[in-house]
Amino acid sequence: MSSSKKHTKASLLTENQRLRDKLAEYEQLINSIRKGEVDAILQTREEQSYVVSLLDEESIYRKLIEEMGEGALIISDQNIILYANQYIAKILQSPLHKIIGTAIDNWIFPDERDYLDNTLRNMADYYSGTVRHEYSLRSNTGSPIPAYLTIGKNSNENSDYTLSIIVTDLSEQKRNKAIAADEKLTRTILEQVTEAIVVCDSSGIILRSNATSRRLSETEPTGLSFDAIFQLIDKNDNLYQLKDILDNTVSGQLELSLRGKTRHFDLLVGSSYIRDIDSYNDIIGSVISLTDITHIKNTERDAVKANDQLQQQLQIAKRSRRALLNVVEDVKQSEKRLKNIASRLPGMIYEYQLFPDGSHRMPYVSDAISSLLGIDPESVHLDASPVFESIHPDDLARINISIKTSASELSIWRNEWRSIDKNGNIRWFNANATPDKQSDGSVLWHGFLTDVTERKAQESKVRLSAHVFENSREGIVITDKNNNIIMVNKAFTSITGYPEEEVLGITPNVLSSGQHKSDFYHNMWETISSQGYWEGEIWNRRKDGSIYPEWLSIIQTHDPEYNATVYIGIFEDITQRKEYEQHIQWLAHYDPLTKLPNRVLLSEHVEYAISQAQRQNKKIAILYCDLDNFKNINDSLGHKVGDLLLTEVAQRLSSLLRNQDTISRQGGDEFIILLPDTNADGSAHVAEKIQTEISKPYNINNYEMTATLSTGITIYPDDGDDFDTLSRYADIAMYHAKRLGGNNYFFYSTELQTITARTLKLEKDIRFAIDNQQLDIYYQPQVSLITGKISGLEALLRWNHPDFGMISPLEFIPIAENSGQILRIGGWVTRTATLQLKKWQATGIDPIKLSINLSVRELKQSQLVEKLENILTETGFEPGLLELEITESMLMEDQENIINTLNRINSLGVHLSIDDFGTGYSSLAYVKRLPVNQLKIDKSFVQDIMNDPGDAIIAQAIISLGHSLGMEVIAEGVEDTAQLDFLRSHGCDHIQGYLFSKPLPAGDIWKLLSDSETNKLTLIYSS
Asked: Is the pTM of this model over 0.70?
């Protein structure tokens, strides 16, 4: 190795070590600033410039700070800049003397100043570490500069402190990101344009291409020569290379052809140069665009070919027209000669003579009379009567009158009439004759007669066709072979708005809507040409510009009169049909009352939401909502009010949901809500909002009312993975929320499934409860507040289940109602209880009233009265001691039938009582019509009668109402003497409740009835 090379290597090693040392010094300085080991201690102003002194002005640290590639600041505890290096001046585009001594806030954009101030304040008060955050610095020119600020705290033993800040300029980094984004956008646009785009360098090598260019070249052209890949030729087969294209497309585009490996393309080629940004005149490449116009060129070639054929056909048509005109002239001459001959050669030539005395004869008649009228020519020479006898009776008088008129006026006689041949067929004849006056006073006609039966039949058909044509509700248009309109009917004008005179002689293209492509009409006429018929749906335009759908049938036929092809179009406006179909389609997916999606559409939305959640590992929620006690509102105020309430509820629910959510009405008062991307917490939040919103007051048809919802919630995938499962479980959870009192929401759980299984088992077992002797009747005494004695017993059903023990009626009575077993159970209760009281009466117990609850299904059964009468007859129980209790809500449905049934029950002598009175919506006018003997105050009013003034007023009102209507009043749920005193003081007739006795089995009740002391009820009576 030479000495010079050794020297160079040694120099490089020395320089490298120097740079390493300097870098270490920079790092040590930065760490010292951050740790507070370097401190700004002096700030002076000399000759309009700031000088910042460090602990040692000659220290190497100061030199490093000044030369470092990041900005450095030292600020005081008042956020005043005490020191700034030269890089800060570069970043902020300001001299140092305008920076030092100013507040740091002056160089921060206003919307970030509060954040910086809070950070600096926290550094001063609490934090001694390092804080980093990105800010927008405000340069001296006002432009934003993105930068990271690294802030450290410097403290001394005197508790004084300064803050050191390292500023890292992020402008270049941001700029590079923007350039990368622009590049990505350029690539995206290039791939999505329909034209082929090719970018070449100055030597013609392809630098970039898009998908269309790859399709045209049938290869990946990038990196290859443009001339090698795109061999373009003009219509004269001249080869165009890249240079030729650039030279010839400066002011326009070229039409060239590309012969590919497997296909041929017609292209519209354009180009532009790419010039250097820094020196615009230097060309560094080019951009070539190639637009595929193969389809357009093929269409042009087809059009040229079609035009040539049309010209040929036009020449043929001109020659045919001249020939046709000659034929028409010949026909006219022939018709003239035939008319002359026809005037002399009628079907039947005859002479008819009428004498003054009324006799008539036919001196001459041709032999055609035999074939036409079936009359022998000889038989009419002396008497023409056989001819007149052949005339239809309805036409004979008219014919005779016309003959007399012709004779008196010597006017030409013309007439038509009917005749009945020997087979009974009607034939039509036409005759005309010229009269001559004879010397003997007679009139002689010379004439002819023809059979016009076929013509009359044809005329009848024509008249019928014309009637159909003019009066058809379908539009009819007839065109000639050139598709020019020659006739339209009234319906055509009615549908399209075009009167006949505006469209005669033009084509039906005037109706074109522009909705169909040329292929549609091409295929239509091909079908007509090959099959002679086409029908289908088409969109046309009326004269007023409106577009409408029609069902069009086109028939190609031959007109024998003109020996020409004509086209008959028959169409009907199917706008209403389309609207109906759309309405049917809408009804298939939406609820007509609330306009909400129905179960079908909801199911589709749920399945889609499940598929999305599955891919994205997210959850969805299903909320099953049901209005509480909606049936009471519907029954009392009517279905119209109920429907309006449902509509208002639907609107309130919809207003709470997001765009991606779905709310559906399932029918009745049930709604299901789909919440995509929602977990249990989110669904609970929505359910709470729903409860709040729905419970707000409503004003429906001037009725002030409130409503509440019970909601069941399931979560996918926790509770199920399909719509049916999730909705079924949500339904179960909803019913559990109702059992908890309503106006609540409840999440589905496996425990609920257990409850449902219990319900199903109870529904199954209750069918055998009577036969297995599991049912028992308890009796609760009713006490007269007048006598202080037991005045009656209410029979209350109990079920001792072999597995679940004693079951509350609140649980199993609804099950019995829903399963239909309540009818059998109700009959058993009535029979058993009446027999029991008859047995007690036989032991000497005074007869007392027996109250039995009647269910809705029992009240509605058609044989209720007959069954009741049979039980009374069978048990011998006195009807006047039996009282049937019905709830107020039961009276609201099917009122007339209910009243009829109650009247029939009352006619048996059985008493009736309205249970839970005051909880429903019955009107005074309605109650007056009922054959009711007693009103029962519901225990919900009695419980708070001493604490709630409203309940006290209601109880007083019921007592007053009952007495004014001639009814007794009983209060249930009486549990303390204060309630007793209140009721007695306001005239209540009877009480029932735990104050005297809870419901007891038959044995205990018998003891109670037998105990004369207890029966005196001294406590109640004396209190």
From this structure: no
